[in-house]
Amino acid sequence: MQHATPAAPAVRETLERLLASETFGRSERARKLLRYLVEREQAGEADRLKGFSIAMDVFGKDGDFDPSTDAVVRVQAGRLRDLLRQYFANEGIAEPVRIAIPRGGYVPAYELNAIRLPETAELAIQAEAAAAPSAQHGTAENVIPAAALPAPMAAPVPSVARHLRFFWMAIAVVIAMLGVLILRQGSGALLAGGDLAATLETAGLTGSVASSSDSEALPLVYIAVKASGTDASRVASSLRAALSGFDTIDFIGRDAVDTTDPATNATSFIFDILPGPDTGDIMIELQSVATGRVLLSRNLTAADSAPGAVENSIAGVLTSALPASGTIYSYLEQSGIQTALTQCLTLNDKYYLDQNATTHEAAYRCLETLAENDAKSPLVYSELASLHLEAVNDHYAYPPDATIEKAMSFAHRAVQMGPTSPYAHRSYGYINSRLGNADEALRWMRKAYDLNPYDLAMAAAYGYALIFAGRYAEGTPILAQAVDASSGHPTWWDFGLFAGELMLGDTNKAAIASYALRTTTSKSHYLAARLIGARITGQDKQARKLLDELTAKFPKFAANPRATFTDRKYPPDLTERLVGALSAAGLGSAG
Prior knowledge:
By secondary structure, this protein is α/β, with parallel strands linked by helices.
């Protein structure tokens, strides 16, 4: 990201597009809060943006509001931060201005977007703009020479005409990529009068997944070191070590990029290690090889790249870029250049972000089709194992007759095919946890974490396993750090954090974690956590609503929650704490 401050009109334009987006379409509270924060800051009233004022102005609280017992502002601000990250990673990936709410306060921050066109295209646009007389000023004196223009994206916010040029160039790139992918299928289907939809299906671009030679291809990732010095070498070494541990990409351990195959380049990416803006800084940029677009840009200060900190810095960068929820997979999906495997992994990630029967079946059927076509990737079987166990736990209709034994067979095959796969080891640990084999679960989860300590998802799984083995003091900080460092994460992380904080006696943190579960209501234990959280924070009206919803949707659980916790092999002391809290919240005798 650039450090120039965007102009006020550009901030307002971005705000209105953001508020009208699909990402914010279902969250009136988030829209209201964001508009308030930006408008107050733009009006020069940043000093008013305190928790107490926000509670009264935005959420209708009165003068008796106590932020120590009512976490509504902190919780809603956390939700807003997540939605902003989601928007700028997806719908708003090409927005000229990015808006963020930095942690520790409520004052918005604005930055020019680092995502840009290739330098040659950018310079051509600048030259065209420089050559044309200014329509607004109408004199030759107002024409800026091309050589005097600043570097890409450091100029003032692009005009409407420039946005249109960006739009049409992006369309041209996507069309070219689709054309190359269709040709790669090798059939000449279009020239022979074939079906375009069938060709796209073979390429893995539609809801149906068919087998092809490239169906299991993963994004290719390279490194290019363009900075010198000890810090740059340390960053490059850490980055190489980290990239080799991620299952979701193919890391090419050389700096040279193969530019002879444009179809391969469509799904190739490179991490540039560059000198930063200040002395001692190192800039990491993730760039599409095919288009030259910078998809992610992080500046590491000297402190960030120091020996004791560089691993954490790299972990934060790569966790936001490489998993199915990250920047690369979002780019593949939006550009329509997914392979069958990357599409399945994206669907799988969407299930864990919004757990219900529909998202589960979509992900399961996608992976199942690959398995039926004798998939060679351990990722197919590790994720099928976890999804199969989810079907057992939550009694999903698909697949029919799901069993833990079948889930275990998938996990066993994943480990056999990928003896160094963190995902395979994690799925094996997850199933052992469900079987009540706490020691085995911890052993496999620890192995997954050791295989890739740079992936926050593996750290979260290990922390979760520790918590549900009754080792709350060990597991809760690990899971809390993963949650805090991630820009978006599955809901089970929040449930694990709720349980850990509850058992450590920090009811305020437990309540905040439970509130993050509000996007998913298809699980009885999630609703139960939200009910407990509402009671902790004194939200009596919300607690009554959740109690009614829990009783109506899950009568069996409501009648005897202890049975569910026992069946899920919760530690006895956690079961007792949850049962007692539910009873205090009005859930009958709570078992």
